[in-house]
Amino acid sequence: MATTDQEVNELIKREYEHGFVTNIESDTFEPGLNEDVIARLSGIKKEPEWMLEWRLKAYRRWLEMDEPDWAHVGYPKIDYNSISYYSAPKRKEDMPQSLDEVDPELLKTYEKLGIPLHEREKLAGVAVDAVFDSVSVATTFKEPLAKAGVIFCSISEAIRDYPELVQKYLGTVVPHGDNFFAGLNSAVFSDGTFVYVPKGVRCPMELSTYFRINAANTGQFERTLIIADEGSYVSYLEGCTAPMRDENQLHAAVVELVALDDAQIKYSTVQNWYPGDEEGKGGIFNFVTKRGAAIGKNSKISWTQVETGSAVTWKYPSCVLRGENSVGEFYSVALTNNFQQADTGTKMIHLGKNTSSTIISKGISAGKSSNAYRGLVKFGPGAEGARNFTQCDSLLIGDRCGAHTFPYIESKNKSAIVEHEATTSKVSDEQMFLCRQRGIDPEQAVSMIVNGFCKEVFKELPMEFAVEAGKLLEVSLEGSVG
Amino acid sequence: MLSIKNLHASVEGKEILKGINLEIKAGEVHAIMGPNGSGKSTLSQVLAGNEAFEVTEGEITLNGENLLELETEERAREGIFLAFQYPVEIPGVSNLQFLRTAVNAMRQHKGQDEMNAAEFMKLAKEISKQVDLDPSFLKRGVNEGFSGGEKKRNEILQALLLQPKLAILDETDSGLDIDALKVVSDGVNALRAEDRAILMVTHYQRLLNHIVPDYVHVLAGGKIIKSGGRELALELEERGYGWLGIKDEEPADSTAN
Ligand SMILES: Nc1ncnc2c1ncn2[C@@H]1O[C@H](COP(=O)(O)OP(=O)(O)OP(=O)(O)O)[C@@H](O)[C@H]1O
Ligand SMILES: [Mg+2]
Q1: Is residue B88 within 8 Å of residue B26, measured between CB atoms?
Q2: Are strands B2-11 and B54-62 parallel, antiparallel or unpaired?
């Protein structure tokens, strides 16, 4: 296309916006993993005995597991003993009791990320739980939430303060032995978020978490558990960034959602981990297990994700639809550029009667990247009258990238109905010419066309996130025209 | 305003334009007629800077400035507008957003403030009325599922919004019903101005009843083989292209589109 090589090079060189490192004192474990490390971690977090036992059980199980290699991605072998399993900003005494006690350097970091906590507290009505490396730093908005009876805190706190709830649900959706990365996470998760919405309560605000990996050579293993009790509703947002580093960093999170009768959970992610440089050096390995169990009748779980970052992404937010009439939704935009690799998709497991699910996946590949959609729709014998609709669209920018679709359908019930649509398109020269003929920059034109392509997914995002997601695409596409 | 000298252009190694000479002054309306496949759209696309076509010889200047050195979007910002013969669809991108992005790109180029959504909405609604398009078309994807005639009216809407210096209209009258032809011609006449030139490609002299051109040119085999006034169109209508030494409704080159 029209932009000259030089222009393209300049655009490509534009740096990852969130690629700064924060200088704060931190307590970091020596790299390495064994039972002592886990015990130390558990000790620092003042965890009860049962939690340590749980972790050790997971660890022993993990040692027997093999790293999966079936995904459409390639990456150098990870040495799990070269990673540090705990890094926390040094604190003067205990956990900060309010934002005023939070390290000002840290608050500045969040400001650079565009999430000034103070501002958010006042203006946006978003409660933010900010996870920095391995620990939760501050949770805003605790009070109004507490009034509604909503528990929104770090998982470490929840383990100490709400052990019955944690013990009842932790690991029920994603058990230890589920997969290699989930096993590792279960053994060493350092922090994460816990949400409980009581019966009949509509959570009064959007809950939000920002993750950031700061320290070098650390892995981030956060664990999120969200429980929506009968008839409740909660919308949860998560955003992620990381500094630019030459080494790869590992992120292996587990998210578990539980929806009881008539409850609804809406979980949205805007993921912008550092993708590595234009030569494919550095970047985050994002190996995440996200699963929701719609165990109650008429319950509903929706995943909406916009994935633009990470060097390698391996992620399949899924729904287990156990309750009668329960609903699962997956709306996804995954964009890859340069040397990024993404293998993402969803699993919809229909177990209950009249369960229904919708999958809308939009994959965009630019540069030399590879983008795969992998989806499983499964109907158990009891899934009478269940149905699924899947729409899987790929958009290619340039001719050096790839898109792959791997849909799997397994049905043990004859009454189940599946509809599947798939398209692959290109940003055409004619479309580009039309935009440019109207005075629009090529870069802006691509971003506009891509945004149009993603519209069905963006409209599922909460308003402020939708705007952010649009901007993110624009930044991530920089240098893709050429 | 626009000066084309000995312009040669080819596509995929095949020469289509074989030495075009054309001078257009501000305020003038020029009509280009000619058999299918003679190169009318090619000329329009080349003027707008479509890189699918390669200019092998000749020059094009706009108010003295060498157009061939400018990218498509730069030419657009200098005031060149092309109404497409076959407008392309951009699914999911609302017409409104597309138009506002275009208008703001032009405004930015001129050092003017961007128009906010509300201001723009008002303007766009007015102009869509002018071309008899229901404002609901602004919310739809760009040309997405528009009928042939709706697409053409949408092109005129864009010309009216962008207020170009040189408007090139490639068969904007084709496929229009009688009422739509009136609407579109009124739109084009509204564009006529002292400081603006219009170059319109058409097959039908009936359009020239609505929009009276200052000059009529016949393009055949990649060259302008005859130029005249309004009456040339009437003559062509009566006699076809045969008397000019080419066969009527036959491509000058071996392959027609
Ligand atoms: N992209 C292309 N590849 C190959 N040939 C092309 C291409 N574009 C145009 N041509 C050829 O160039 C010639 C001129 O085409 P052009 O579209 O300019 O004709 P036209 O005068 O506009 O015809 P019409 O009246 O049918 O619109 C035709 O023979 C056409 O097939
Ligand atoms: Mg034509």
Answers
A1: no
A2: antiparallel
Chain A contacts in chain B segment 148-187 (CB below 8 A) = 158, 162
Contact B92 A454 (CB under 8 A): yes
pLDDT for position A207? 81
Ligand 1 near B41 CB (within 6 A): yes
Residue where the block lists tokens 């005075």: A439
- What whole-number distance in Å separates Cα of residue B238 and Cα of residue B245? 15
Q: Does B234 touch chain A (CB under 8 A)?
A: no
What distances in angstroms separate CA A438 from CA A220, B75, B184, one per listed residue? 46, 9, 19
The answer for residues whose C-beta is within 8 angstroms of residue B199's C-beta and 6 or more apart is B2, B24, B30, B32, B44, B47, B166, B167, B168, B169
Does B177 sit in the ligand 1 pocket, CB within 6 Å?
A: no
Of the candidates B182, B177, B2, the residue with the CA atom closest to the CA atom of residue B80: B2
Angle between helices A49-63 and A180-188 (to 10 degrees): 150
Cross-chain residue pair A455–B50, CB shorter than 8 Å: no
Order of strands across the sheet that contains A206-212: A135-139, A126-132, A206-212, A233-241, A264-271, A300-307, A327-336, A356-365, A387-396, A417-426
Q: Is the pTM of this model over 0.80?
A: no
Give ipTM to 2 decimals: 0.93
pLDDT in tens, B110-162: 999 988 888 899 999 999 999 999 999 999 999 999 999 999 999 999 999 99
The CA B150 to ligand 1 mean position distance, Å, reads 23
Residue B216 has φ and ψ, to the nearest 5°, of -125, 130
Nearest CA to ligand 1 atom 22: B41
> A-chain residues within 8 Å CB-CB of B102?
435, 438-440
* Spacing, Cα B6 to ligand 2 middle (Å): 20
Is B91 in the A-facing interface, judged by CB distances under 8 Å?
yes
List the residue whose alpha carbon is closest to atom 2 of ligand 1: B11
pLDDT at A462: 73
Mean pLDDT of A105-125: 47
Determine the Cα–Cα distance for residues A176 and A179; give it in Å rounded to an integer.
7
Cβ neighbours of A455 in B, within 8 Å: 92
Per-residue pLDDT of A285-314, as tens digits, reads 778 899 999 999 999 999 998 887 666 777
Q: Which of A450, A394, A398 has the alpha carbon at shortest distance from A424?
A: A394
String of DSSP letters for A340-355: -EEEEEEEEEE-STT-
Amino acid at B163: Q
Q: Tell me the one-letter amino acid at B156.
A: I
Does A438 contact B162 at a Cβ distance shorter than 8 Å?
yes
Quote the tokens at residue B16: 């289509």
Burial of B257 (0-12, 13-18, 19+ CB in 10 A): exposed
DSSP of A207-247: EEEEEE--STTB-B-EEEEEEE-TT-EEEEEEEEE----SS
H-helix or E-strand containing A293?
Answer: strand A283-294
CA A258 to chain centroid: 17
Lowest mean pLDDT among A253-257, A291-295, A365-369, A467-471: A467-471
Which residues crowd ion ligand 2, with CB under 5 Å? Answer: B 40-41, 85
Cα dihedral angle (B111, B113, B119, B120), rounded to 10 degrees? Answer: 50
Whose C-alpha lies nearest to ligand 1, atom 16? B39
- A3 CA: distance to closest CA in chain B (Å): 8
Q: Which ligand is nearest to the CA of B39?
A: 1
B57: β partners:
B8
Q: Are A290 and A259 in contact (CB under 8 A)?
A: no
Largest Cα–Cα distance in chain B? Answer: 56
Q: What is the pLDDT of residue A163?
A: 95
CB hemisphere CA count around A452 (13 angstroms): 25
Check: CB of residue A3 under 8 Å from CB of residue A397: no
